[in-house]
Design goal:
The protein has 393 residues and is of the alpha/beta class. It is built from twelve helices and 16 strands. The strands form three sheets. It has an eight-stranded mixed beta sheet. Strands 11-10-9-12-13-14 form a six-stranded mixed beta sheet. Helix 1 crosses helix 11, helix 4 packs across helix 5 and helix 7 (175-188) packs across helix 12 (355-365).
Length: 393
């Protein structure tokens, strides 16, 4: 087993994705979505949220052999974290992307140190040259740092395929933000482009609705605009509520004094400033702090805890049953999956959408045709993980 916390984390991450239901989603992506670029002129693919190990792209070199032979093929990796991009870049340094006998294609970098890469990423993007015996294979990969709370970088140009697998539900826990990103994805696709959305069908929007209700109740009680700072996930937001139930959602830039505003911390506790109390209760709580999601509350149990539990039980069982993998690593992967479930139960992570809401958002963004593929529809309870293909025309 590899040593080092970062490397171990990558192995745990890859182990989770070896569970059949996750692997089937990735196989559908690689076998049926990416080949769409073969008949296009630009042959450009944008990957939103690559993860530290670059999975599944670094594990299936044979599937990219013909694509990389074409001098026009471009692959752009976009992620929020410079550390993840540096880790992914480092992994690609060690891998042969084209696995054909007698043909070596390897990303070559003079500066392999992660800090050097992060410095380059201050300008947002870093292009990695691929050095090979074949001509015309330079500049195949671009690593691009971007915060998905912000509008997508239109300067990257048009793409034949834009794909986001198990990413958007982390970055866009508010439906308005997700709607904006989907519209921008539509705009960045070429005329015949396709968007692949690997996701889960599960209505986890209850926590968002409860956050908004808390802010609206506070604004109604005070009679003037109220600010709520949402720090539950890795992507904090600032919400401003007016007394007429209007809400403005923005990226939180840590410039506010949190003690003066309603704040939801990364443990799922709602903190109410003293000036807000004044003999007023919030959702039946009179104290300065209370849990956003309370397992003793009937609505919380019905609309969040129940769907989250039903979503996670099958995948946790799958990971535990993995064979031919280091038992210790499997055990760590099971615990990591349970950790995600625990966070989701508190409304801290995993903001999946229902099928109806996901499709409505895609059609509202402008997509003309949407196809849902269920690679896990075996009747065993794993069919909540899906591939959505949204076509521009």
């Amino acid at each position: 087993m590899k040593s080092g916390i970062a490397e171990l984390g990558e192995l745990v991450y890859e182990t989770i994705f070896r569970a059949p239901s996750f692997k089937n989603v990735h196989d559908e992506l690689l076998d049926n979505v990416l080949p769409a670029v073969k008949g296009s002129d630009k042959k450009r693919v944008l990957v939103m949220g690559i993860g530290p190990s670059g999975s599944p792209y670094n594990t299936v070199p044979d599937k990219f052999r013909n694509l990389f032979k074409d001098s026009r093929f471009k692959l752009v990796f976009l992620d929020y974290s410079p550390k993840i991009l540096a880790s992914c870049f480092s992994r690609y340094n060690e891998l042969r992307i084209i696995g054909e006998e007698g043909l070596e294609a390897q990303i070559i970098a003079n500066e392999r140190d992660a800090d050097c890469i992060k410095k380059k990423l201050k300008k947002n993007s870093y292009k990695a040259d691929i050095k090979t015996e074949m001509d015309g294979l330079e500049d195949k990969l671009t690593f691009f740092q971007h915060d998905l709370r912000d509008p997508l970088p239109q300067e990257l140009g048009k793409f034949d395929v834009i794909e986001s697998t198990f990413t958007l539900h982390h970055a866009a826990q508010y439906v308005g933000v997700l709607a904006d990103r989907l519209k921008e994805i539509y705009d960045m696709l070429d005329e015949n482009g396709v968007f692949h959305w690997g996701t889960g069908f599960c209505d986890m929007s209850y926590s968002e609705k409860k956050v908004i209700r808390i802010g609206q109740e506070a604004a109604s009680i005070k009679g003037y605009p109220v600010v709520l700072i949402d720090k539950r996930a890795d992507y904090p937001y600032k919400l401003t509520f007016s007394s007429d139930d209007e809400v403005k959602i923005e990226k939180y830039d840590i410039s506010l004094k949190e003690s003066e505003h309603i704040t939801i911390d990364n443990k799922g506790l709602v903190h109410i400033p003293e000036r807000f109390l004044n003999n007023s209760s919030f959702f039946g709580y009179w104290g300065a702090s209370f849990p956003l999601i309370d397992e003793n509350e009937k609505e919380d149990k019905a609309y969040l805890l129940k769907p989250v539990k039903s979503f996670y039980i099958p995948t946790n069982i799958e990971i535990a049953r993995l064979r031919s993998i280091d038992p210790e690593l499997v055990s760590m992967a099971v615990e990591a999956d349970k950790g995600e479930k625990s966070k989701a139960l508190k409304g801290l992570d995993e903001y999946y959408r229902s099928e109806g809401e996901a499709l409505e958002l895609l059609y509202s963004a402008g997509f003309k045709r949407v196809v849902v593929k269920r690679p896990n529809s075996d009747g065993k309870g794993f069919d909540q993980l899906v591939n959505i293909l949204a076509y521009k025309k």
